[in-house]
Design goal:
heterotrimer, A alpha+beta (430), B alpha/beta (333), C alpha/beta (144), B: 333 residues, alpha/beta, 7 strands, 31% helix, globular, C: 144 residues, four-stranded parallel beta sheet, 16% strand, binds iron/sulfur cluster, binds FE2/S2 (inorganic) cluster
Chain lengths: 430, 333, 144
């Protein structure tokens, strides 16, 4: 038996690596997540209103979904101003997250830190204009400034509270926000043009992935839609049933469980046809979207559609395109929501008057559908939490991608470094 | 002057600490004008073998808590390869949010399981508890916060990496730093070992809310009231830990209307944040009647999870591990 | 097995309880080896951090004793101690230090039998609880 370990993988939120085991026969590939945060042990016993601040450890979007779960637990409706402020934060998070991914992707073969003279990795076959990378950086920095204004802190926001947000914005912030919004939008238009010329499929090892289902919550609905690989809706159910519909499979080789649709039963990832696993995120959303809300003139959108075809195929390059579409959409929404009218109002929060003892919320976060459910005692002390994060839901897909790259690269063994890069680039946009 | 070599690593935590360093890089245009980042798995995919070949690293920014055997090994390796080791963020500095897991009773259902029983997949074992970096290796400097503010991380980079010779596009509030630190940064000498890149006093000192030394009769949970924007939260009956917490963020949370939860760790003069908060909070009880005070006390929930939210592993005097515990890697059982 | 001898730290007010303890010691009311007395000028001086430090350094029980309400030489130091005691006991118990290990009592200078009684009671209570080791070997109670 021979073990080959490709590690550490770049751009993963947790330490992760790929282990290939050869034992005669075809190689077996395992994507391993190397650590775990025991979230329920972190949260049980805490006053439930503290969870939005604790669970940001997963990603900033979890702060928002957690606050929404509290809205339902305390049975309060946030005022429009608060809804907008939270949404403005969420859109900004989309922008930041996706831009960071593009930054990583575009600087993958060169050196993301300009003066890095010791680099061995300067095998730059494709030249990405340096200027583009600089501009991406600048806009991430700008958008981060906006997340700080809206969320109170950049990466672990604090402003969302049960029933609303914790404070009004001050006058100078409105001007700054609209400046940021405009600048992000105009850059995202430019970015789309440049990327179309660059052709992502030529920058990376592109391939189509075996068809699996996807899960999304479209628009402002409260329905989870399950779509097949051609984008057709196969079933749907109310979002708050999600924890009944989804099971978690644990495997001995990774700390990250696999989410799957319970009614179809767990298939081992080695099976020919995997019917119960699914994925979430930008590409899933793009595929299931019938209509794309877009801040662009018809003509621009037209050229976009031409590159994509009507339903984008389930491939790596298209996943990057999905990021770009969402950067667009987010920037458009940001401009809209950053307007002073959207972010002013008489009240910022409604004070809860009861504790229902159970709270639930699900939203589309930058990386895909996420959901929280809490149970508390009558004082609002957490007794049980359930959390669906996008990493768990995409875990199966990510394993399949790693497997596919190893299987398809006959020479993976000769150049494990290249194989690693291919895997990293393929996992990044999900 | 040869360029300094830099390493960045995150053990068990989240990506926000590393992202804060990236944000500085984005904001500056480049972090690497006077330093080379030679090891950063998250961004560069750097391998451990490369670290050895590469010769000693000048400064290592280590984020994340020690939760698994792999985290421990990473800490030891980076320490032995680095001239200066910086604990970056609350997780590395005090155990952070991950150490909250140790506050909960361990029952068979919630005991962390090690899935890879036969060790076939070399999945790193979980440690018996969550450790901070300083429990495992010597730490030279601390940059607290969850995540650290850009200002202080920048101050640390400026003084340890750039030695005062840097593109200062980001400003930091030198006035918030203890004198010795501020001086060493501006004059380009290495600050005293053990320095914390943050203030010395408590958050209250820089919080913009006004204190009136009021007593009050009832406490509120943060969801129960919408506090006045100009007045001290604690005096409005909301548990705020600014009194016991090291200053530096400038009252980031209190400015937004949320109470401080102590992500910068305890202030210099505080022995134990829980003890400090007990005395601060109880001194505001407006009563001399035992039964009344007892009743008031009952309205408080989860003191330990609040007072030691980010610091359970190192600053809770009753919970700091003894040297024996920290020395032992998890056994095979 | 040898009998567990708990270590009790007693913070005693100079003006009252300390005098009582001294008298109790002379008349051998108390098993001395169990108790380490720390004389303080007022029970109000005993900051919660002293108590926590005592437990952290290996005490199995902590007694704080002061003058009866109204008798404090610094007006209301004892009331200050009283205010803190409830919240402190709660925090301690969340961290795994049982409630009986920390007591606040009023003992006047003349009340040495009371001192002896309370102290012996406490020693027995703590002996039954066993050694206090609020470190990680011990499961914590956590919740409020
Ligand atoms: S200190 Fe906070 S931001 Fe840094 S790794 Fe830990 S949880 Fe993340
Ligand atoms: S207790 Fe909190 S709100 Fe009050 S002054 Fe201090 S930091 Fe500000
Ligand atoms: S106010 Fe407190 S919790 Fe908030 S950032 Fe500052 S130190 Fe951290
Ligand atoms: S002087 Fe004895 S308690 Fe204050």
């Amino acid at each position: 038996m021979r073990r080959t370990i490709l590690e550490p993988l770049r751009w993963m939120e947790e330490l992760a690596r790929v282990m290939v085991i050869e034992n005669g026969g075809p190689p077996k590939t395992f994507l391993q997540v190397m650590t775990k945060l025991n979230l329920s042990r972190m949260c049980i016993g805490r006053p439930v209103e503290e969870l939005p601040r604790i669970l940001t450890i997963l990603s900033p979007a979890h702060h928002l979904v957690s606050a929404m779960a509290l809205d339902s637990l305390f049975n309060v409706t946030p005022p429009p101003l608060a809804v907008n402020m939270r949404d403005a934060l969420l859109q900004t998070l989309f922008f930041v997250r996706h831009m960071r991914k593009l930054y990583f992707f575009l600087s993958s073969h060169s050196n993301p830190f300009e003066d890095f003279s010791l680099s061995q990795r300067n095998i730059d076959q494709h030249s990405v204009p340096r200027d583009l990378i600089d501009q991406i950086m600048r806009h991430v920095a700008l958008a981060q400034e906006a997340t700080k204004i809206l969320g109170g802190r950049a990466d672990h926001p604090i402003s969302a509270v049960p029933g609303g947000v914790s404070r009004f914005l001050k006058q100078p912030y409105y001007d700054r926000l609209s400046e940021i919004g405009r600048s992000c939008l105009s850059f995202s238009i430019k970015l789309a043009r440049v990327l179309a010329d660059l052709k992502p499929e030529e920058l990376l090892y592109d391939f189509d992935i075996q068809p699996i289902l996807s899960l999304t919550i479209p628009g402002n609905s409260n329905e989870v839609q399950v779509s097949d690989s051609s984008g057709e809706l196969t079933c749907q159910f109310p979002a708050d049933q999600i924890f009944e519909k989804i099971g978690f499979q644990k495997e001995p080789w990774t700390y990250k469980p696999f989410a799957f649709l319970k009614e179809k039963g767990w298939n081992s990832l080695d099976s020919e046809k995997v019917t119960s696993i699914y994925f979430v995120g930008p590409l899933a959303r793009l595929k299931s979207q019938k209509e794309i809300g877009f801040p662009l003139s018809g003509e621009n959108w037209k050229s976009f559609e031409d590159t994509f075809g009507s339903t984008p195929t389930f491939g790596i390059a298209n996943a990057y395109r999905a990021l770009q579409v969402e950067i667009f959409q987010a920037a458009g929404r940001m401009v809209d929501l950053y307007r002073q009218e959207s972010l002013t109002g008489p009240v910022i929060r409604n004070i809860p008057t009861e504790i229902k003892g159970e709270g639930f919320a699900a939203i589309e976060s930058p990386d895909g559908l996420i959901a929280h459910r809490y149970k508390t005692d009558s004082r609002g002390i957490v007794e049980e939490i359930e959390i669906l994060d996008s990493a768990t839901q995409n875990n199966a897909l990510k394993c399949l991608i790693a497997k596919k790259v190893v299987e398809e690269s006959a020479d993976w063994n000769h150049d494990p470094k290249l194989t690693k890069v291919r895997i990293e680039e393929a996992l990044l946009p999900f | 002057m040869p360029k300094k070599k830099l390493a960045v690593y995150t053990a068990t935590g989240c990506a926000a600490c590393e992202n804060t360093i990236l944000d500085i890089h984005y904001d500056l245009g480049s972090l690497t004008r006077s330093a080379d980042i030679v090891f950063w798995p998250y961004v560069l995919g750097s391998q451990w073998d490369g670290l050895n070949e590469q010769g000693p690293v000048d400064v290592c920014f280590f984020a994340g808590a020690i939760r698994t055997e792999a985290d421990r090994i990473a800490a030891v390796r980076l320490r032995s390869n680095s001239k200066l080791m910086v604990a970056c963020g609350a997780c590395a500095a005090f155990g952070g949010l991950p150490s909250l897991t140790d506050l909960h009773p361990e029952t068979p259902e919630n005991r962390p399981e090690h899935l890879d029983e036969g060790n076939e997949f070399l999945l790193p074992k979980l440690e018996s508890r969550v450790f901070a970096l300083e429990h495992i290796v010597d730490v030279d400097y601390f940059v607290p916060g969850c995540p650290p503010t850009r200002d202080f991380l920048w101050a640390a980079i400026q003084s340890l990496v750039y030695m005062g010779d840097s593109p200062t596009r980001i400003s930091f509030t030198a006035s918030r730093l203890p004198m010795a630190l501020a001086e060493s940064i501006t004059s380009g000498i290495v600050p005293p070992r053990g320095s914390v890149f943050a203030g010395e006093k408590a958050v209250c000192a820089s919080c913009s809310r006004i204190k009136e030394e009021k007593k009050f009769r009832g406490f509120y949970r943060p969801y129960e009231i919408d506090p006045d924007s100009g007045r001290c939260l604690l005096e409005q009956g909301i548990l705020c830990q600014g009194l016991a917490t090291r200053e530096g963020c400038g009252g980031l949370c209190t400015a937004v209307g949320a109470a401080c939860r102590g992500c910068f760790g305890k202030a210099e003069a505080v022995f134990d944040p829980g003890a400090k908060m007990v005395s601060a909070v109880s001194s505001t009880f407006d009563s001399t009647e035992a039964s009344e005070i007892e009743g008031l006390t009952k309205t408080f929930v989860d003191l330990a999870g609040t007072f030691y939210r980010y610091t359970l592993a190192t600053q809770c005097a009753l919970r700091t591990p003894n040297a024996e515990e920290a020395k032992h890697a998890p056994d095979n059982s | 097995m040898t009998r567990f001898e708990p270590k009790i730290i007693a913070f005693l007010c100079n003006w009252c309880s300390y005098v009582a303890a001294d008298a109790a010691g002379v008349s051998r009311f108390v098993q001395k080896p169990n108790v380490r007395v720390i004389r303080v000028f007022c029970s109000g001086m005993v900051d919660p951090s002293y108590v926590i430090k005592a437990f952290a350094s290996g005490a199995d029980g902590v007694l704080v004793a002061g003058c009866h309400p109204g008798d404090c030489h610094y007006l209301a130091g004892n009331i200050k101690a009283l205010r803190r005691s409830f919240l402190l006991r709660k925090l301690l118990s969340e961290l795994g230090v049982e409630e009986k290990r920390f007591r606040l009592e009023w003992i006047a200078a003349s009340e040495s039998p009371l001192y002896a009684k309370l102290m012996n009671e406490m020693i027995e209570d703590v002996r039954n609880l066993g050694p206090c080791m609020p470190s990680s070997q011990k499961p914590l109670k956590g919740v409020a």
